[in-house]
Amino acid sequence: MSRILIVGANGQLGTDMMKLAEKNGVTCKGIDYPDIDITKTGSVRSVVDAEKPSIIINCAAFTAVDDCETKKEAAFKVNADGCGILAQESQRVKAKLIHISTDYVFDGTKTTPYVESDVPSPATEYGKSKLDGEMQIAQYTENYQIYRIAWLYGLYGNNFVKTIRNAALKKQGTSDGLKVVNDQYGSPTWTVDVCNQIFAAMDLGLKGVFHCTSEGSCTWYDFAKAIVDAYGINTPVNPCSTEEFPRPAPRPKFSVLENERLKKAGVNIMPHWKDAFNSYTMLEK
Ligand SMILES: NC(=O)c1ccc[n+]([C@@H]2O[C@H](COP(=O)([O-])OP(=O)(O)OC[C@H]3O[C@@H](n4cnc5c(N)ncnc54)[C@H](OP(=O)(O)O)[C@@H]3O)[C@@H](O)[C@H]2O)c1
Prior knowledge:
- With 285 residues, this protein is α/β, with parallel strands linked by helices.
- It has a domain at 4-154 and 188-215 and 256-271: Rossmann fold (3-Layer(aba) Sandwich), CATH 3.40.50.
- The chain is built from 10 helices and 12 strands.
- Strands 2-1-3-4-5-10 form a 6-stranded parallel beta sheet, with helices on both faces. A two-stranded parallel ribbon has the order 6-9.
- The longest helix has 21 residues, at 72-92.
- The protein binds NADP nicotinamide-adenine-dinucleotide phosphate.
- NADP nicotinamide-adenine-dinucleotide phosphate (NAP) binds next to helix 1, helix 4 and strand 4.
């Protein structure tokens, strides 16, 4: 039976990964900073030697996309070198490494969904550090699965759903509306679906990089409208352009990923983003 070590277990995705593992009766141990520091070999090694995992799932990362522009060294330490250390330690104890990556490895200039064979070309320091992490994993171990996800939301941690919901509630009853970018496309993806997909595919002998986002796509504006509608908040949502809402790290215009490899393997269970968001809001109510 697999012994799973979930690293980054207190984060947005890691928390649901722990809960779903427990629900599925999977033996797992969760750990997070500072009880493990993936940038330090000694720290990772002592945890791996104590837990003797057969599978390591890495949900830990430096995820503040804008901060990565100014804290490049710290971002690369966690997102790139941390992955290298995890890969070497996984290889040392013959454990499989499951790692989470991102749509930001692409620059968003394509107009059709990105497949796994598309050549990455990140435009941000976050994306570059995450791509470096993917490459270090491939360099140090053969036994790995990397799942590229995007536009993540869930019950735990901060995300777009909570930001829009809170902003809309604050403005309810005022004449102000929300302005939300309507020229960036992606696929809102629920943490729980990512976890279920990973648990469904992890023991099947699949290796390499997999796109793992919900089906269908929309703009941030479309998603914000769906959020406000789902919670019955009476605040207008107005479309705006990327130029009207500049960010330190440029966001990809087109971030839609096709789960081509999961589909070809016959194991894609990612739902349409609208169905997933409906399930999420039902759970919350
Ligand atoms: N959020 C998204 O929209 C999104 C989209 C695409 C891909 N992803 C990827 O999905 C994965 C999970 O994201 P998330 O939203 O769940 O992230 P999160 O909520 O920020 O969680 C990341 C966790 O990693 C921990 N961590 C940071 N540095 C560490 C270190 N040196 N050693 C050990 N743990 C460390 C953090 O601890 P502290 O809180 O103490 O720093 C935190 O608990 C990441 O790989 C991310 O790149 C996320």
